[in-house]
Amino acid sequence: MKLYLECNMGAAGDMLMAALLELLPDRQKFLDRMNGLGIPGVRVECVPAVKCGITGSHVNVFVNGEEETVQDVSVAAGAELSIKEEHEHRHQEHHDHEHCHDHHDHEHGHGEGHVHAHHHFSYADVCGLIQSLDLPAQVKSDALAVYEQIGTAESKVHGMTMDQIHFHEVGSMDAVADVVGCCLLIHMLGADEISASPVHVGSGFVRCAHGILPVPAPATAHILEGVPIYSGKIKGELCTPTGAALLRHFVGRFGEMKPMRVKKIGCGMGTKDFEAANCIRAFLGETDDSRDEVTQISCNLDDMTPEAIGYTTELLLKSGALDVFVTPIQMKKNRPASMLTCLCSTEDEEKFSQLLLLHTTTLGVRTISCRRNILHRSCGTVETKFGPVRVKRAQGSGIRKSKPEYEDVKAAAEKCGVPFDEVYRQAAAQDEKED
Q: What domains lie within the chain, and their CATH numbers?
């Protein structure tokens, strides 16, 4: 099964958990399991929610009967942080240096109301708690990996080691519930491929225990390095560190949704109201293996030697390009030249664009998104009197093709001292017989 996450309104753990929960046939079974894990003080519930006339679900995570809240602030407020507030913030940092409150390792973000009323948990405490929960080994491994990303980001942002980062109780347990819940849901859904849209992070400022921060908040921005993100007209924090870390851990590709036969759609609602529906949509289904999308990258070269072009061609293929080819062309002033073209997967576009810019004399490359109709590929082995020979096979839409592997045919011909064609024909005939 394939899972696609639409992050047009960002990503937060509670929203993601609600969207994934809607994909399950038995929601209560999941809720009972979550509430029976023994996460200190935590109770999870799922309730119907409506945003802009669209129905979905919202997950509430209560810690000792409380919920974390987020406080977005206006640009003016963010720009005019008062001297008093700054003084209080610096005093708190000095007074509470070893109790650094992770400004959003929890989902609803940055509540300040209970900073002094609760215990504090270290990164090691949180990891120990996750290890103690009655969960499948894979779920624990995923949850710990997600939390490691959050802890690493917070430690870099605050200039501390991960051992020095401390989280206040409500935020810690809220985030643990969100992370564990999402990891458990993905495990239960059994999706073998997860992709997502580029992530909308929001804009403006958000208030946290450390003061007023720009959106995306520093920890979120750090986690999302390398992920396609964008801002917009919506003022507020749309993507939290927990949501960002979950996406970073599970999503293998960010981009447009590939052709998919959708079987179910889940809609997870946030708590805030915007001019656009504040939700994440999760699409569960099967992709059409006969269709694919690749990126074609090309450049024109009139000042490179054939040897240098050949070297670059081999380098691109060794780096994982799907195909590389050179086309003779005529450029301005009737100069004979070569067009070097590289085909790669869409997620590798930046990687191969950089390789072309680095290893050729071109000053720019062109990219085209191409859709392909493809046959399903497999590989088998046939036995011949010259030894085993691998055979590449392809089929689909009533079509079947096969071709003996060149390197195997060549090795057998050289070893037995027979013509290449003789080995090739026998391997092809044997494959046809076994079909």
A: 2-287 (no CATH), 291-373 (3.30.70.1380), 376-434 (no CATH)
